[in-house]
């Protein structure tokens, strides 16, 4: 139980760190002077003391939505698979619940965008809805396929199964599911080929458009939600698709886990440096590839047993 | 371990099918050949077959190194059009390609069950053969068709490696020779067109 | 050792082609003439004669086909001397044409003499790739497009053949090991293999690849278009040599397949051929230029050869094969002269020949055109009669005699359409259109005479005895 609580706290603490790390690594690779990797903490601090301004055209939703964006993600954090063998985890939750909770959070984010006083909010919300609806089928397929390979649909049990005896004979289906999930990770977190988190250009922004009106404490909450969402996806990815090192002793296992999270962030940063943002109407193509991979993973598993 | 690389092999096929840039096609061809070479070496080590290890090494050097380099060189020298959009729109191929994969996997089933060992490898190499055919069909310009031809050759090589534990050495060397000759001919053809 | 002698002329041509001397084009045909010596020497050896171990083996069948191919190659090189008189070609391209012709020739010698599927495939692929460049020697835009076309479709066909070979190899490897690629050994042990289905599947895929390469259904027009776009010797090389190599491969594979399941093999091939010939006959009826006409008629004859072969008529198939291999290149080469007034001018093409050379030319071309539609003294007449009787004999063994007679009747009807078209074209060439003076060169005439003599040689009693002794 101690380990369980410790892991959740650790995840909460390092969540902004990963975001900061991606940003500074990207700046370093682009020959800019990198910001500190602790910048998100500083921003968070700054936002806490700032005044909250709410447009008088917006309703009560703007006040409650940021909390509702954050809270499902915090609940998801509780359901994450264990990082150390033998640690406590919540086993009765299956992957679909997690997907549902994440969607709930996205839903409130979209409501927040619609409720805002400016014209960009609605645009951002509609784009977000567009992307989220495409992410959903691929996500279900991927999770289902991994669940089949791990012989359990619950993420906790699945990751334990995978860690104890990895299905090496299903490596190719596993790889396809992994590729699919990684694309979804990029899409859901608004990373580069789908959405550029650093721009406020009205033509391209998706996530930023929805939170353009938000300020102060609410913005801090949203930023926190963003970093938590990233770490939720990253830790799902590393526990399901890189289930190594879980069987080590506790401090070492946690260290390995953090190292894997950092690896994922580095890969994301590298992709962001090397790629350009896709045009909005080309996003379905990328997500389509993800669907194809998820589907392929399922059929190679079913038809070939590979 | 071989399963993992077979997965990479097929994954690069799929990415190529959705790709719209020539250099990316060449890159994924190199990646595909890399996976193929590693698979060949692994199979060779598993069956203690030196011929397979040698041809795997040759694959790594020629197909993953020399040929992509030459192709890139050709495309730079002769100013090939690098934006190559598939004629089948991607949102159709999202439906089409899984359908074809399912079809070919079931098509390959009697074959792979007959060869027995590693049935899934055979099914995957046969379905990659068909995917290469689709790649050839869905592009209009010449350069992607060449890459499709080379990838088709890769798929057949994988079939030869996995279904028969490698063909006789001289046949594999002959196939390498022919692939190199194809590259020379392609180079000459582009040169002629460029001169004109 | 004999292999070295066989490929020496090609190697010499290959190396000479790197020097840009203008008089070389007279040396080249003489070089190629040298190939006849080892080829004829092969006939004096006891068969089967191992050229290189089990890999290249001379048998009665492939020595015959090699002889035919070398005669065709010599004829084509003779006609090549005056290529620049009929079409626009610079010296550089001409030399390069020779360089790739040499590669083509080496590939085909390997392919024809091989007793091994792998070597067969390697030789065929080499020949295919070198043809691409030979098509490209024509600098027109059309030729460039068709060269790529040939490259791509040829690559698909050749990949299908490799695919089939791998399946066949996989089916036989458990009992024969690495020797499973050996045609002769595979034929002996075919009844021992555990998965005949796999072999049959491989055979079907190999056949489809070969059929695509020969321009069968559904790819009827692609070869015709390519031959139209390229210089006329390419068409001659295609129909005379490349397709011989493909046919000998088909002969080898089908002999093995027929041992497993004769009826299934026959039905598959027969249906395919029937579709092809019904389509081709109407395409021939609609064709408006010599190249497409001859190319499509080549497809028709290939259909007949394969049909006779799978019906068990080995002698008629080989006779027809020989006649086709001599007549078709001769006709393709004659288009160089016939089309000197323009591509689509059939009327009057046989008029306007003066002097001894001109008169001989029109006489020989007339002979070729009437021989290709199997008018009696032509070997094709005898081969067709023997071939159809072989089909009847085959049908007698089963209970489908009536069906076979019906099929042959339809086949004859289709052939009569082709016959009608050729006669019409002959008449149009001879009696219509205005008279324009045309020039025939001595070297070309020599090539035509060679082909004519060789064709007549086919119906000599000795040849017939030799052919009848070949049992697949």
How is the topology of this model organized?
The complex is a heterotrimer of chains A (306), B (196) and C (472).
Chain A: H1 2-29, H2 39-49, H3 61-79, H4 95-115, H5 119-150, H6 155-164, H7 171-188, H8 207-210, H9 216-241, H10 250-274, H11 283-304
Helix pairs in contact in A: 1-9, 1-10, 2-9, 3-4, 3-9, 4-5, 5-6, 5-7, 5-11, 7-9, 7-11, 9-10
Chain B: H1 2-18, H2 22-46, H3 50-77, H4 90-115, H5 119-138, H6 142-164, H7 169-195
Helix pairs in contact in B: 1-2, 1-5, 2-3, 2-6, 3-7, 4-5, 5-6
Chain C: H1 2-16, H2 24-33, H3 36-44, E1 49-52, E2 56-58, H4 60-80, H5 83-86, H6 91-113, H7 117-136, H8 141-176, H9 183-188, H10 196-214, H11 222-229, H12 232-260, H13 262-286, H14 290-310, H15 314-338, H16 355-372, H17 379-397, H18 401-431, H19 442-458, H20 461-468
Antiparallel strand pairs in C: 1-2
Radius of gyration of chain B: 17 Å
Report the mean per-residue pLDDT of chain C as an integer: 86
Query: What's the gyration radius of chain C in Å?
Result: 21 Å
- Into which percent range does the helicity of residues of chain B fall? over 70%
Percent of sequence in beta strands of chain B: under 5%
Catalogue the unreliable spans of chain C: none
Oligomer: heterotrimer
Largest sheet of chain C: 2 strands, antiparallel
What is the spatial order of strands in the main beta sheet of chain C?
A: 1-2
What is the N-to-C succession of helices and strands of chain C?
HHHEEHHHHHHHHHHHHHHHHH
Regions with little confidence, pLDDT below 50 for 5+ residues of chain B: none
Strand content of chain C: under 5%
The class by helix and strand makeup of chain C works out as mainly alpha
Please report the total strand number of chain B as a whole number: 0
Q: Helical segment tally of chain B? A: 7
How much helix, percentage-wise, in residues of chain C? over 70%
Number of strands of chain C: 2
What is the CA–CA distance across the termini of chain C? 26 Å
Number of helices of chain C: 20
Q: H/E element string of chain B?
A: HHHHHHH
């Amino acid at each position: 139980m101690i380990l369980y609580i410790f892991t959740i706290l650790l995840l909460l603490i390092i969540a902004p760190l990963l975001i900061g790390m991606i940003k500074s690594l990207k700046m370093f690779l682009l020959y800019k002077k990198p910001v500190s990797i602790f910048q998100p903490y500083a921003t968070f601090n700054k936002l806490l003391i700032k005044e909250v301004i709410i447009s008088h055209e917006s309703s009560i939703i703007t006040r409650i939505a940021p909390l509702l964006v954050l809270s499902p993600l915090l609940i998801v954090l509780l359901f994450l698979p264990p990082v150390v063998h033998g640690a406590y985890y919540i086993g009765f939750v299956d992957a679909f619940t997690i997907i549902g909770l994440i969607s709930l959070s996205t839903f409130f984010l979209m409501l927040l965008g619609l409720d805002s006083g400016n014209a960009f909010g609605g645009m951002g919300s509609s784009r977000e809805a567009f992307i989220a609806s495409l992410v959903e089928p691929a996500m279900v397929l991927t999770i289902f396929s991994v669940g089949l390979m791990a012989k359990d649909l619950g993420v906790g049990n699945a990751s334990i199964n995978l860690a104890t005896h990895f299905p090496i004979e299903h490596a190719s289906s596993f790889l396809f599911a992994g590729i699919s999930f990684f694309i979804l990770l990029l899409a859901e977190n608004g990373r580069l080929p789908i959405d550029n988190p650093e721009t406020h250009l009205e033509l391209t922004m998706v996530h930023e458009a929805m939170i353009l009106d938000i300020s102060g404490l609410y913005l801090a909450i949203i930023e926190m939600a963003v970093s938590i969402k990233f770490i939720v996806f990253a830790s799902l990815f590393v526990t399901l698709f890189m289930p190594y090192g879980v069987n080590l002793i506790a401090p070492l296992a946690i260290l390995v886990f953090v190292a894997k999270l950092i690896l994922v962030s580095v890969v994301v940063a590298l992709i962001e440096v090397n790629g350009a943002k896709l045009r909005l109407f080309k996003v379905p193509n990328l997500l389509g590839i993800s669907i194809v991979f998820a589907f392929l993973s399922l059929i190679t598993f079913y038809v070939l047993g590979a | 371990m071989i399963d993992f690389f077979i997965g990479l092999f097929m994954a690069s096929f799929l990415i190529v099918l959705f790709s719209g840039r020539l250099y990316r096609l060449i890159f994924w061809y190199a990646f595909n050949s890399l996976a193929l070479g590693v698979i060949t070496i692994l199979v060779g080590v598993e069956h203690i077959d030196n011929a397979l290890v040698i041809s795997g090494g040759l694959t790594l050097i020629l197909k993953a190194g020399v040929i992509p380099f030459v192709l890139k060189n050709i495309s730079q020298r002769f100013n090939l059009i690098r934006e190559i959009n598939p004629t089948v729109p991607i949102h159709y191929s999202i439906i089409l390609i899984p359908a074809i994969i399912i079809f070919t996997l079931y098509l390959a089933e009697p074959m792979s069950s007959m060869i027995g060992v590693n049935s899934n490898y055979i099914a995957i190499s046969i379905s990659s053969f068909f995917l290469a055919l689709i790649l050839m069909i869905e592009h209009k310009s010449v350069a992607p068709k060449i890459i499709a031809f080379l990838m088709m050759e890769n798929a057949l090589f994988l079939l030869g490696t996995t279904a028969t534990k490698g063909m006789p050495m001289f046949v594999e060397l002959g196939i390498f020779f022919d692939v190199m000759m194809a590259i020379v001919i392609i180079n000459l053809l582009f040169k002629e067109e460029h001169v004109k | 050792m004999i292999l070295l002698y066989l490929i020496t002329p090609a190697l010499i041509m290959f190396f000479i082609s790197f020097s840009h001397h203008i008089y070389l084009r007279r040396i080249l045909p003489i070089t190629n003439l040298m190939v006849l010596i080892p080829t004829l020497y092969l006939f004096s050896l006891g068969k089967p004669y191992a050229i290189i171990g089990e890999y290249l083996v001379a048998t009665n069948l492939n020595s015959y086909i090699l002889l035919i191919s070398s005669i065709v190659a010599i004829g084509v090189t003779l006609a090549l001397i005056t290529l620049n008189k009929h079409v626009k070609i610079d010296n550089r391209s001409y030399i390069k044409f020779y360089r790739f012709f040499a590669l083509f020739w080496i590939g085909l010698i390997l392919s024809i003499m091989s007793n091994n599927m792998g070597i067969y495939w390697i030789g065929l692929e080499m020949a295919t790739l070198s043809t691409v460049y030979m098509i490209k020697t024509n600098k027109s835009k059309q030729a460039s497009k068709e060269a790529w076309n040939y490259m791509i479709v040829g690559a698909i066909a050749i990949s299908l053949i490799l695919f089939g070979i791998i399946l066949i190899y996989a089916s036989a490897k458990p009992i024969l090991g690495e020797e499973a690629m050996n045609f002769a050994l595979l034929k002996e042990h075919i009844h021992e293999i555990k998965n005949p289905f796999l072999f049959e599947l491989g055979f079907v895929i190999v056949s489809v690849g070969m059929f695509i390469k020969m321009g069968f259904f559904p790819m009827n027009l692609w070869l015709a278009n390519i031959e139209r776009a390229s210089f006329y010797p390419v068409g001659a090389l295609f129909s005379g040599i490349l397709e011989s190599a493909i046919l000998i491969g088909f002969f080898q594979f089908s002999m093995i397949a027929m041992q497993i399941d004769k009826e299934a093999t026959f039905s598959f091939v027969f249906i395919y051929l029937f579709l092809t010939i019904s389509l081709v006959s109407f395409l021939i009826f609609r064709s408006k230029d010599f190249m497409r006409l001859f190319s499509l008629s080549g497809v028709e004859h290939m259909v007949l050869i394969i049909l006779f072969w799978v019906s068990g008529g080995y002698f008629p198939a080989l006779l027809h094969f020989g006649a086709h291999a001599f007549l078709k290149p001769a006709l393709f080469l004659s288009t160089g002269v016939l089309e000197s007034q323009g591509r689509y001018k059939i009327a009057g093409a046989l008029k306007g020949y003066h002097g001894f050379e001109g008169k001989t030319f029109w006489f020989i071309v007339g002979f070729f055109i009437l021989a290709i539609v199997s008018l009696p003294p032509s070997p094709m007449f005898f081969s067709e009669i023997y071939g159809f009787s072989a089909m009847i004999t085959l049908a007698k063994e089963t209970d489908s005699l009536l069906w076979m007679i019906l099929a042959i009747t339809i086949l004859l009807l289709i052939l009569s359409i082709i016959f009608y078209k050729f006669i019409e074209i002959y008449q149009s060439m001879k009696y219509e259109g205005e008279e324009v003076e045309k020039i025939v060169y001595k070297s070309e005439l020599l090539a035509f005479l060679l082909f004519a003599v060789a064709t007549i040689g086919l119906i000599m009693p000795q040849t017939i005895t030799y052919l009848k002794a070949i049992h697949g």
